């Protein structure tokens, strides 16, 4: 409708519902869809099945007939949309790139890193310098803690080279011990040893990662945590802190784990990010299941809308032809065409608008000279005005070949 736009060219849609819309009892429920449809019309595509030109040729009972049929189709489209699950903000905005980057950030600390390239600063989020290992290898949401999966592996696997410690080696693999090791008195974890640990993990590059795999992985991790009666420990723990020595532990500590395991694990930010991704992917999976069941309906409704307009246009054309008797046109046809209430519909109907604004004015038939000039111009150029109209039903493309289905189907109901 013209009331949805700020300008005559219909290029800018009102951000909020106008007084005209608010007078409609159900506007609040439908405004988002009306706005989306108006925005779609402002950017027409070749897929649009209906033509504004066709709608403008309808008057009187033909227009009412088309409106009734289109309204019925729109109501079906609205019911169809209501069947779609309501996605959370995170799931709605999720894309394949975002999902992949979340996994990379959880694994390496940054989305740009890979096993051969990840550095100690990227994995830990900053330079560790000479911070004590038992203070770094803690599952908390703070700087210089276990920020990524690689950080956890460094705490679990890299051998201690602190002189006063009896180093525990071979906890993971010989390579994971590292060549230089970690002497938290004189240095930070060696970058070369950090990349060795990252590269020691099994690669699933190019493979699909369904939500179920992520769920199994995080639940398996929880099952590996032991407790001393108060705190939790991931890895080899004996007593008094995860400092890397054989008498204490090569591990990650979770303070207060036994009292509240779930809240404690949420402090491990990279694990929380993966669990959030699990939830979002499950939402998308459920939505896709519904969309797959109703996938053909939007196209059927679009075809029904196009057929309704075509039928009404045909009726209008036949009635217009029979309205001419003995070379004279019935006055009611002429009057109906120039009874529009807005500048846009008036001028598109071949009439002239006498006024100063979109709705401030009067629509009148053109005089004989104006009609002749207009007809001559179209005949000379061969270009009669033809603009696509707003779509009745719109659906976004659904991905079918990947696990991360990242475009939400939307169906818009118009009046």
UniProtKB/TrEMBL annotation:
Localisation per UniProt entry: Cell membrane
Protein species of origin: Trypanosoma brucei
Basic and acidic residues: compositionally biased ranges: 361-372
Entry's Gene Ontology cellular component terms: plasma membrane; side of membrane
Region (Disordered): 357-382
Domain of life where this protein originates: Eukaryota
Claim: Nucleotide-binding is one of the keywords in the record: no
Alphabetic keyword roster: Cell membrane, Glycoprotein, GPI-anchor, Lipoprotein, Membrane, Signal
Protein function: VSG forms a coat on the surface of the parasite. The trypanosome evades the immune response of the host by expressing a series of antigenically distinct VSGs from an estimated 1000 VSG genes.
Name recorded for this polypeptide: Variant surface glycoprotein 3125
UniProt xrefs under InterPro entries: Trypano_VSG_B_N_dom
Domain Trypanosome variant surface glycoprotein B-type N-terminal positions: 3-296
Membrane topology value: Lipid-anchor; GPI-anchor
